[in-house]
Structures are given as C-alpha cells and as structure tokens.
Task: inverse folding
C-alpha cells in the first residue's frame, strides 16, 4: 500500500541564489513510463528556465490531486522565505470578526482546493513557475486568544519575510491581518498604494470599544502613515450603513471609492486602466476580501452582502494589476463552514494564483 508515495522522494538539491529549496522528484518506472514519448523514450519534467531552476508543482497528469499533504498549489513547503521571490503564507485567525466566525480555517481549505490549479494561466499565458522561485512557507503562529498579540506576531513574521526580498501572498484569516502586514510592508517600502477589493470599507474607528478588528484596519493604517492616500482605491463597497454616506471618511482621506453599483453589468477592465494610472510606479499592496464577490458565488464568508461583484470581475481586477509594482497581496475572509461545496475556497485559491501571475518579473508567452 502507498507504494507510489514510498517512491516519491523530496530532494533538497535545487540551488537558487545560494540556497536550497524542495522539489518533487519521481523515480519510479511506472512514472517514467507515463512520461514517455511514442518512441518509448523516457521524458522527465523540465524544471529549468534560462539556466535556473524553479519550484514546479507536480502535474495532475502524473500525480493524483487527492494524494499528498496539501500545500498551496501543491508547491513545495519550506520553513522560511530564504531564496524565494514569492511565498504563500497562511494567517489563520478569525478573532477580529464581527459576525460569522470560521476564517481561521480559510488557509487550510484554500490549500486543499488549490489542488485544482495547474502551472500556466490559460487566459493570460502567464508562466509563474518559469519566472520566479515560489513555495508555501506555512502559517504564522497566531495567538487565537489574544488579537493584539497576534498582530504583533504577524508583523514580526512579515518583517522576516520582507527582509529576504520575498513578496508575500497571504491566505487569511480575517481582514484584521492587513493592518500588521502593512506595518511591516511600510517599514520596508514606505507608504504604499492600496488596491482594496471588498464589500466593506474597513475604516471604522472603534467597534464595541475596540480599535483592532476586521472593520478597522485601514483607519489604523492611515493614522500610522502606512498608506499613500492619493494612491488608494476601494472597489466593490456596498450594503446598508450606519450613516447616509458610509464612505465619507474614505473620500476625505483622498481614497477613490468605487461602489458596487458602479460595477454592475460591465467589464472592470476600463476601471483598472484608470487604477493603474492612479497607482503609478510606486509600491502597491493588493488586499482582496472574498466578500467583495456576491454571496451567490462566494457564500463561505463572515459578513456577506448581496449584489456584489462576479468572479469574472474579481479576475479582471487582479489581472488589471499587471504592471503595478506589487509588493504584497492577500486574500482574506474565507470561512469554509458556510460553503460546504468548497467553491468559495476554490475561488480564493484561483484569485491567489492570479495574484502570483501579475507579480513583477512574471514571464508571459
């Protein structure tokens, strides 16, 4: 039993910028037979690009999706960001949620559903695994009993990641996590532009007497000078409010606010052309709350609002970030218990892959 996996060995022999990283190496004859041409000559998967070697997920043509320990996109796991250009990171907290909990299980379920991902982006012809060294570096060790301590842990973890030159691609977790991540990002890059995709502005000051929570991160970021406010756009905002104009504070800071009603029945490609002009060449952070999408498409979230964006529009937004100087991205608020199909997490996994595909240095065919 499990004879195939007994013959699947992990080699730590891939050198990239002086470091090693894990790749899958299959040595069984049946596998080589699967990878043979019509003449019977064995073909091994090519992991080389321009003389360098990159982590490449095993293809479902040869390794069953349901086998193996789940990592994001079935990429190799390593403990640190050393030697990586980009890394998938989980931040499994929901201590900051105000309604339905469960986002602490988001990273785990996104990884499970990400087994459906393949190596190339058929829509854009992006080839991320021929362009950058990327791996799954696991989860931040959060404190599920203390949100402020968790924020400290996140900030310290991201300082280490960013110090290596690696771009973090984060799986949330509730939206509180954007605040400590942006603290670390701004320490390295200075105030950043922000593409914020969400049903909610997340700019409340105090909620139930607390200043830290998933409804307050971008108010805290503005207060600490982490954002270049003239280069902030919030897309997809909607729902009932506590005042006639729920987004007055955002506009007063200089944010561009694009309410969901402005997105109905249209492509968002023209909007994203305007966003690229707004962001310019400076560093940009992309924060995507899954509840930006209509709950008919993504019900597995904590604070759903009707009449939201479609998955097509979500993909348009992310693809529209191509060319920006992205220094980090997150996909937050997936709460798997409220979508037993797994489709919300699957959508999140695909959006994260799209984020990887628009990072600087990505090769396109």
Result:
């Amino acid at each position: 039993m499990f004879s195939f996996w007994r013959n699947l060995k992990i080699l730590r022999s891939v050198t990239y910028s002086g470091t090693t990283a894990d790749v899958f190496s299959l040595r069984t004859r049946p596998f080589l037979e699967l990878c043979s041409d019509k003449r019977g000559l064995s073909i091994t998967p090519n992991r080389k690009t321009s003389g360098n070697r990159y982590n490449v997920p095993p293809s479902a043509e040869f390794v069953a999706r349901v086998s193996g320990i789940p990592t994001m996109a079935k990429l190799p796991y390593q403990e640190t960001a050393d030697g990586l250009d980009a890394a998938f990171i989980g931040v499994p907290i929901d201590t900051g949620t105000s309604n339905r909990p469960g986002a602490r299980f988001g990273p785990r379920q996104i990884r499970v559903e990400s087994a459906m991902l393949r190596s190339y982006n058929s829509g854009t012809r992006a080839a991320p695994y021929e362009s950058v060294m990327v791996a799954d570096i696991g989860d931040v060790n959060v404190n599920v009993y203390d949100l402020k301590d968790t924020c400290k842990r996140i900030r310290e973890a991201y300082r280490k990641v960013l110090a290596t030159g690696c771009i973090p691609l984060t799986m949330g977790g509730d939206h509180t996590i954007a605040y400590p991540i942006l603290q670390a990002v701004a320490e390295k890059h200075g105030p950043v532009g922000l593409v914020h995709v969400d049903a909610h502005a997340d700019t409340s000051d105090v909620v139930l007497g607390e200043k830290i929570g998933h409804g307050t991160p971008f108010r805290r970021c503005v207060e600490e000078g982490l954002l270049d406010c003239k280069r902030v756009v919030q897309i997809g905002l909607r729902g009932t409010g506590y005042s006639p104009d729920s987004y007055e504070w955002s506009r007063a800071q200089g944010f561009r606010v694009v309410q969901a009603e402005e997105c109905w029945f249209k492509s968002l490609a023209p909007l994203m052309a305007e966003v690229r002009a707004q962001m310019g060449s400076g560093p940009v952070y992309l924060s995507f709350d899954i509840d930006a999408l209509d709950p008919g498409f993504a019900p597995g979230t904590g604070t759903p609002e009707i009449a939201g964006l479609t998955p097509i529009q979500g993909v348009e937004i992310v693809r529209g970030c191509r060319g920006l100087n992205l220094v980090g991205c997150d996909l937050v608020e997936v709460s798997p218990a409220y979508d037993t199909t797994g489709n919300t997490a699957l959508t999140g996994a695909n959006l994260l892959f799209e984020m990887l595909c628009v990072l600087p240095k990505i090769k396109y065919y």
User: Anything to note?
Assistant: The mean pLDDT is 89. The chain is about 25% helix and 20% strand.
